[in-house]
Inverse folding.
């Protein structure tokens, strides 16, 4: 394999961009005075981008992967520059939506690009690149809040815009050899219809995911409007969350050696998310929020690890089909759950949002304990 | 069943040629059950994969693989077309 070191620049750039800009979109919108509904829309935007995967696959077949990906990255770089000058919540929300619409191309086409260049080595390479991206994100997000505190978000957004532009140039220079198999279409709905085990698992993930994602608008409202936390402090919380995620992914890969341990991992993750929601609901103090974000990282990592391992271990379907199913169902719940959360905040309050989340996540835990363990049975 | 190849697979970094040889060995030992045109592969009563057509085992190739914590999932091809999936578990 002729591995080009310059190929690592792209995931590193994306990690930098996320840490310097998109991680703070929701926080900045809240500071600009966005309503819970607008905050809900911003929270949903990345998931809307995920749902556009088939569209980006179609465009890439017409224009070639590197060109399509580079164009969307250049457009996102321009949008970041525009966002750095916006001061009204409505316009900010609108441009964030456009940003994530284009960013959806990254999730679909970047694995396809690596696949076309590195063929059978691609799967492991994509996982490694994703680790680089996460590590860089964790390091930069810890400091970008402080930079924003000193020079405002205009500075970090403009830096992110330049970094993103450079990664676009590198992608444009990539030479993909063949049309990738990675962008083959999958009938995810048929997959749910024909397999009762998958149906059960998707239902459990939908309920747990709804509970988790409906908290998205409540978190910045609590941190910014109720606790008056600075960007620097929020940056630390984001970094702690991401660090816990990275470390736990390593821990799970050492711990999980059979199906029983995989089930334990899922249950531990769900309990950690409930712990996080309880802290946000009843003990909203900065140092407790650090603990809550550790719990959040543990929970997110366990659910990701569970689905990743499930996709590899489940013998009835291709790994990619099961990953696409996860991405699709995440996209669905990612659109309605934050908006539902915003509605609960508007009608009741932030605390009620967290309590309802806990209720839904508990239902999914019981569903998993009583029904979910049959998934791998013959 | 020839277990040596499975032990070797999980003990060393995966090489596609060795994985392919091992997959072929395992395919010779699995029970194939045809259910509505999809051939289920079973080993010791447990599902370990499927084939969409009955291809000659010696000509089946591994085109892609995913390494999990306790198994390796291989995507199988025959005459450059996807034909199925085989999950090789560390407990085989």
């Amino acid at each position: 394999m002729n591995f080009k070191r310059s190929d690592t620049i792209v995931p590193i750039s994306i990690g930098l961009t996320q840490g310097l800009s998109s991680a703070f979109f929701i926080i900045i919108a809240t500071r600009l005075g966005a309503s819970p509904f607008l905050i809900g829309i911003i929270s949903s935007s990345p998931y809307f981008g995920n749902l556009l995967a088939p569209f980006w696959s179609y465009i890439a077949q017409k224009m070639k992967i590197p060109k399509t990906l580079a164009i969307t990255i250049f457009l996102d770089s321009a949008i970041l520059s525009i966002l750095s000058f916006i001061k009204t919540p409505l316009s900010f929300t609108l441009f964030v939506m456009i940003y994530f619409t284009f960013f959806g191309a990254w999730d679909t086409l970047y694995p396809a690009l690596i696949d076309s260049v590195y063929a059978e080595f691609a799967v492991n390479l994509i996982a490694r690149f994703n680790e680089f991206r996460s590590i860089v994100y964790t390091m930069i997000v810890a400091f970008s809040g402080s930079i924003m505190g000193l020079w405002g978000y205009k500075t970090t957004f403009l830096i992110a815009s330049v970094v993103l532009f450079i990664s676009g140039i590198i992608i444009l220079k990539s030479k993909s050899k063949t049309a990738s198999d990675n962008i083959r279409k999958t009938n995810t709905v048929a997959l749910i219809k024909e397999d009762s085990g998958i149906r059960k698992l998707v239902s459990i993930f939908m309920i747990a995911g709804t509970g988790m994602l409906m908290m998205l608008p409540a978190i910045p409202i609590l941190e910014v409007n109720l606790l008056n936390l600075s960007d620097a402090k929020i940056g630390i919380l984001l970094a702690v969350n991401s660090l816990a995620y990275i470390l736990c992914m390593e821990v799970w890969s050492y711990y999980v050696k059979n199906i029983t341990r995989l089930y334990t991992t899922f249950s531990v993750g769900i309990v950690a998310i409930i712990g996080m929601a309880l802290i946000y609901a009843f003990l909203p103090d900065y140092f407790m929020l650090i603990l809550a974000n550790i719990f959040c990282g543990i929970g997110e990592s366990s659910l990701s690890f569970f689905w990743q391992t499930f996709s590899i271990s489940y013998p009835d379907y291709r790994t990619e089909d099961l990953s696409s199913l996860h991405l699709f169902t995440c996209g669905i719940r990612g659109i309605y759950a934050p908006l539902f959360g915003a509605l609960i905040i508007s009608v009741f309050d932030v605390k009620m949002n967290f309590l309802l989340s806990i209720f839904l996540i508990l239902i999914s835990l019981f569903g998993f304990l009583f029904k979910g363990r049959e998934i791998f049975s013959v | 069943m020839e277990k040596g190849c499975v032990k070797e697979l999980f003990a060393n970094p995966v090489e596609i040629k060795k994985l392919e040889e091992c997959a072929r060995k395992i395919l010779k030992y699995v029970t194939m059950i045809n259910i509505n045109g999809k051939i289920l592969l079973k080993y010791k009563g447990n599902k370990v994969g499927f084939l969409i057509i009955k291809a000659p085992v010696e000509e089946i190739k591994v085109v892609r693989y995913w390494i999990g914590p306790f198994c390796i999932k291989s995507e199988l091809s025959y005459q450059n077309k996807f034909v199925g999936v085989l999950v090789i578990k560390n407990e085989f």
